[in-house]
Design goal:
Elements (H helix, E strand, L loop, with lengths): L5 E2 L9 H6 L10 H18 L4 E5 L3 H12 L8 E5 L2 H12 L4 E5 L8 H10 L6 E5 L1 E2 L4 E2 L2 H11 L4 E5 L11 H4 L3 E5 L11 E5 L1 H8 L10 H8 L10 H17 L1 H21 L3 E2 L10 E5 L6 H10 L2 E2 L1 E2 L8 E5 L6 H16 L1
Parallel strand pairs: 1-13, 3-4, 3-5, 5-8, 8-9
Antiparallel strand pairs: 2-10, 6-7, 9-10, 11-12, 12-15, 14-15
Helix pairs in contact: 2-10, 5-6
The structure holds pyridoxal-5'-phosphate.
Pyridoxal-5'-phosphate binds next to α3.
């Protein structure tokens, strides 16, 4: 590929040349056999990646669209029930806002930035609530703070205390980089976007959805239109989509899923762990801190605590001259932290080149 700026930002992530090329195949119609075969191939492989035998909806939207879908299809309008939203940073806060804007009663558990949601907090919130929550919303990997929440432990508490509560998980910045077993955990919605650990361009979103979630959707009158799970299901069983999907992105997805499964999911997860460990070790070696609470550091994005007080803007300007780009802190964390994504197909050599360039900047 010609010299371009390599992305170490948490989405969109670096996309391999062969995957970019897959998008340039001649167009096909979406109401024919060739498309149905493409959809079926993708569906089967997505089920493997999501660890489910149920279904994985494919949406031509970014992940935010499926946030709205989960809110509309899984939470009833009974104001006494509502959703329990766990907030630990900017993305989880936004999802809570999506529930509210869709008119759903939203009970919030909030922890400070850099902290993780603990199972005890969920236990207390469930016990304190007079009615059963229709759903709980959990952002697995809070991209704004580099915190990975203890999903398994949180899910165990919900299953024990409130088995009828649907479990909705945003794994936008972790799915395909970290193992999340939809079936074993008993999740109801597990959603992600194409431009993070899948290593694809932005524009597609995926959600594994349980039979139980579809049953809930049947009881809700106003589910909207574009993200109506029942409509998506009606077409999915025919290997199709209700509206015209981003077919070029599906060509790229088909190719990328082949490559991911050929490499092996466990190998890909181990690769993400390896890059995360390298990144943390580099940060510490340069005298920086890690922003995430110890024990909850993300495997896919490291939020570096800017304890040395470097000028992050100047750093990125320097990196631009080396054709690299990382992320400043998110929102109020701008300048106080900076973020390095280690997702999808970034290699150890890419990470080392980035660290060398930052070290060079630090020596100036
Ligand atoms: C990127 C991100 C989103 C937003 O996804 P879009 O695909 O941009 O809509 C939501 N949640 C998390 C945790 C993210 O990292």
């Amino acid at each position: 590929m010609t010299e371009h700026t390599k992305l170490f930002i948490p989405g969109p992530i670096e996309v391999r040349e062969s995957i970019l090329q897959a998008q340039t195949r001649p167009m096909i119609g979406h109401r024919g056999k060739v498309f149905e075969d493409l959809f079926a191939r993708i569906q089967s492989k997505l089920r493997t990646v999501f660890y489910t035998s149920q279904r994985v909806f494919l949406s031509t939207s970014s992940g935010t669209g499926l946030w709205e879908g989960a809110a509309r299809n899984c939470v009833t309008d009974d104001p006494s029930r509502g959703v329990l939203a766990t907030v630990c940073g900017a993305f989880s806060e936004r999802w809570a806002d999506v529930f509210e804007r869709n008119g759903k009663t939203t009970t919030v558990i909030q922890v400070g930035q850099g902290k993780a949601i603990k199972p005890e907090m969920v236990r207390d919130a469930i016990k304190a609530h007079p009615a059963t929550f229709d759903a709980i919303a959990i952002v697995h990997n809070e991209t704004s703070t580099g915190v990975m929440n203890p999903l398994e432990d949180i899910v165990a508490v919900v299953k024990e205390l409130s088995p009828d509560t649907l479990i909705l998980v945003d794994a936008v910045s972790s799915l395909a980089g970290v193992k999340i077993d939809f079936e074993a955990l008993g999740l109801d919605v597990l959603l992600t976007s194409s431009q993070k650990c899948f290593g694809l361009p932005p524009g597609l979103a995926f959600a594994a959805v349980s039979d139980r979630a579809l049953e809930r959707a049947r009881t809700i009158k106003h589910r909207g239109y574009y993200f109506d799970f029942l409509e998506l299901e009606k077409f999915l069983v025919k290997n199709n989509t209700p509206a015209t999907p981003a077919i070029s992105l599906m060509f790229a997805l088909d190719q990328q899923l082949d490559d991911m499964l050929a490499e092996g999911l466990d190998a890909r997860f181990a690769h993400h762990t390896c890059l995360a460990e390298m990144t943390r070790a580099w940060a510490r070696s340069q005298g920086f801190g890690l922003f995430a609470e110890p024990g909850y550091e993300s495997q896919t994005v490291t939020c570096v605590d800017n304890t040395r007080g470097i000028d992050v803007k100047a750093l990125n300007k320097f990196l631009a001259s080396r054709h690299m780009n990382l992320s400043d802190g998110y929102g109020t964390l701008k300048g106080k932290t900076f973020r390095i994504a280690h997702m999808a197909d970034l290699a150890e050599t890419d990470m080392r080149a980035l660290f060398e360039a930052i070290n060079e900047f630090l020596r100036q």
